[in-house]
Structures are given as structure tokens and as C-alpha cells.
Amino acid sequence: MFAKGNVTITRDLGGGSPVQSDVIGNALNGDAFSWQNPSDLSLTFSGAMTAITFEDSDGILSDDPFSGSTVTDQFLTQPVTINGTTYTPSAGTVRWANPQPVNVENEYEVRLFDDNGIAYRMVGVSITQGYSTQVVGVTFDGASPPPGTTLRYIQGVSSYGGTGQTVVVPDATVCFLAGTLIETPAGPLPIEDLKAGMCVLTLDRSEKPIRWIGQSLVCGLGKLAPICIKSGVLGNTRDLYLSPNHRILLRSSTAELSFGHHDVLVPVKALVDGVNVVRIPMPKASYLHLLLDEHDMVFSEGIATESLFTGAGTTNILAASVLAELNEIFPHFQQSLQHISHLDLTMSEARYLMKSASKGDVKSIEMRAIA
């Protein structure tokens, strides 16, 4: 999200500062509360973005996750300093008790427009400690504007909502956990040792240059906990740790019968069985992305796994700073998105494939491995 201190707001009509001293924190119905006449505003987003990690049970960031005086969801899980204030997780769940619970909320939503008339849905993010709520910044439902972008609140056109709104929390993009060995012409190397310009071996055994590598340090609990394919389960030479949505390439006669393709992409979270493929929660997970010119399969710990796919779903959840960097490397990056390399199974299709496997477990599906 953009911290509140990284959003500059001016009045369009005549310029100058807004009447409200804290538009982001107090009201986003223009420069007004609900009973006032809103102004047209310009909002410029700048500086580095800030990450807030929280425990979430339903994939939805909502307003007021409370049942009476009890906090039910969206508990802060990592300390974070925003606008000079440090917020620290708490074990409490009752708002009036000590320790006070600390949770994250969707405080409001507002529709803004850029100079081309493209609409953005901005979400006000607040942190509540007990009964004290502070709006700390804003995020976006979908693509975030690159730093430096100015969006506008247009009276009579922009919309504002501050009660009961929700936004789907996007799943993390595909990543390898730091330490994963990737096959290169020089042999397997830890992904964190790879650099843009170096080559990796792909599915057809050709050498492809890495165009970009990105790294994210996240809370590895809950939905973002790495998933481990234990050594040897699918032909992997060591334990392989991937983010939940990372797709691997499976070869299966059942897939050919059911979906018309012998080789299919399956998100690793669909393979979790609690024995051979398991979630490994950890307080911090260092995830790395690896981007090639085209979506392709690279070999991690000896089995075929996808490179970063720059389809619309992925670009919508990449941070603005990452998108800005990619646009510098790849001119017209967001106008020339990649095509997926193989048939991509949905979660329900992947689970059907697992249930239909001859032995009913992960090991019964042949994995495409290094020849």
C-alpha cells in the first residue's frame, strides 16, 4: 500500500491545500464529510510502498471484522512502522481487554480517475488497536498506479463508500523460496545467485536468458506459507519449496483423457496431501521471481516449474514499483502480455486429476523430469 504520508492531495479548483487536514484519514468524499459539498481533488502517489502482513481466513479484506467486542479475523502478524507509528501484533482478541487486539481493516473505497479516464478503485487501509482505528494508507483493488501518478476525485462522478465494503485479497504471484536450485548451463545454482542476463535451461533443453529477477520478504504464515514437495516425490532431487500458486508441469494419461492434454500445469497448492506435499509455515519467507522473454518451464530441484507469467492476473497483483521496473526493461510491458505455455488447470480440475490418479496420491502422477 501507499502510506498516508506518501499521498499528496491538492484541490483542483484554485489549487491549494484541502479544507480537511487529513483527507485520507478523515473522509474521502472529496474534501468533505457526507453532509458537505465535495471538491475536485488531485491525489499523487509517490515513494516506496509499504507491506502490511495479516492473518486472513476467507481471502477478503473487510470492514469491521468483529463479533461484538471480539476481533474475528485480519489480525496483524508482523510489526510495521507507518507514518512514524509502529504497530505490533498482539495475542489479544477482545477489544476492551489487555492486551488489545491489533487488526487490519478495509475502511473505505473510492473510485478515482487518471488523465485518460481509466478508473481505479482505491481502498483505505486502517489498523485498529482495541477500539482505536487509524487509516494508515491506501491500496488498490487491481492494478496500482506507478509511483508519481496523479489520480483525480471528480465531483459527481467519483464514488465513495465507507460501510460494509470488501475487497478480495489477491493471491501472491508465483515464487521460488530462497535456496532453491535452478538448472543452468553451468549446473544447478541457488536462485538468489542468479542475475539478469544469465541463462537457465528450459523444457526443450535450450538456454534462455533471465530478463529480470525480483525478491520479496513476506510473512510465511497462513495463505503464503511455502509448500514443500518432499525429495523424490515427483522426481525432485531435494525438497522443493514453492509459493502456493506456483505451477508445476505434470504428465498424466488421466489429464489427456479428461482435458485433451498430456502435460498440464497445476498449482502446487492443489497437490497438498499432508504427507508427500505439505505446507511449511514460517514467520518470514524470502520469495524470488524469475522472468524470461516468454512463459516457460525451468528446472528447480530437477523438475519442471514455471517462470513468472506476466498475464493480466499477475500484473494486477505486482507492486507498483515492480511494474515500473518491468516497464523500463520491457517497453510496452503491460500491452504485450505473455501467453501461457501449457494448459493451465483450475483448482477444481487439478483436484479432479488427483482423485482420478490410479493410486489416488501425488506419486501416481508421472512428473516431467530432466531427460
Q: Short summary of the structure?
A:
By secondary structure, the protein is mainly beta.
Let me know the average pLDDT: 81
Give the number of DSSP strands: 32
Relative strand content: 35-45%
Classify the helix fraction into a percent range: under 10%
What best-fitting shape do the alpha-carbon axes yield? Answer: globular
What separation lies between the terminal Cα atoms?
Answer: 44 Å
Low-confidence stretches: 367-371
Structural class by secondary-structure content: mainly beta
Give a short account of the largest sheet.
5 strands, antiparallel
**What is the count of helical runs?**
5
Q: How large is the radius of gyration? A: 23 Å
Describe the structure.
The structure is a single chain. It contains 5 helices and 32 strands. Strand 12 and strand 13 form a beta hairpin. The longest helix has 10 residues. It has a 5-stranded antiparallel β-sheet with strand order 1-13-12-11-15. The relative contact order is 0.13. It has 371 residues and is mostly beta strands.
